[in-house]
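[Discussion] Sanity-checking designs against the backbone

I'm trying to build intuition for which residues belong where. Below is a structure token string of 177 positions. I'd appreciate it if someone posts a full sequence so I can compare it with mine line by line.
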């Protein structure tokens, strides 16, 4: 049994030696095979370039989309903040109107109002125009003013404001009939 085992091991060793000899011998490759291989590699390169270009395009589009969304979010937050501050502007204007006299306190309230309005203007919040007639895009008619001309604003009950050209609160007005 040992002899058979040794014989099998010798046969296996000879087979392995023959395979190694065949592997080290140069095999002939035809020019057509090489040209076909070059063609395949060129096609693979074109495909990978196209995939890379598509990936770059998609990445750029994603960045642009994220920037648009961030800008929109910033505008939304600024609009909400500005709307909240407009209540303070209204209250300061009411306080000035109710005080009537020119005391130091009233002067301080006027300066505070002016400072607040200047800050709002820095961020694009401006008062809606009420001097050039009624505009349904900027004004909300809440009544008829018998003393005003037709399609003219008679009384402004509450000022309206825009943020970077976009209405954030319409002016409540009374319009002539």
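Best answer:
Here's mine. Compare freely.
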């Amino acid at each position: 049994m040992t002899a058979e085992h040794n014989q099998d091991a010798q046969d296996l060793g000879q087979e392995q030696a023959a395979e190694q000899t065949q592997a080290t011998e140069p095999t002939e490759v035809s020019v057509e095979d090489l040209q076909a291989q070059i063609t395949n590699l060129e096609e693979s390169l074109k495909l990978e370039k196209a995939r890379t270009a598509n990936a770059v395009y998609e990445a750029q589009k994603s960045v642009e989309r994220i920037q648009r969304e961030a800008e929109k979010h910033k505008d939304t937050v600024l609009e909400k903040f500005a709307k909240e501050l407009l209540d303070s502007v209204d209250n300061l204007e009411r306080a000035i109107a109710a005080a009537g006299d020119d005391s130091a306190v009233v002067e301080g309230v006027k300066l505070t109002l002016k400072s607040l309005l200047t800050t709002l203007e820095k961020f694009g919040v401006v008062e809606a125009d009420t001097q050039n007639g009624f505009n349904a895009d900027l004004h909300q008619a809440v009544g008829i003013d018998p003393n005003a001309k037709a399609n003219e604003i008679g009384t402004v009950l509450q000022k309206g404001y825009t943020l970077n050209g976009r209405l954030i609160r319409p002016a409540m007005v009374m319009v002539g009939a």
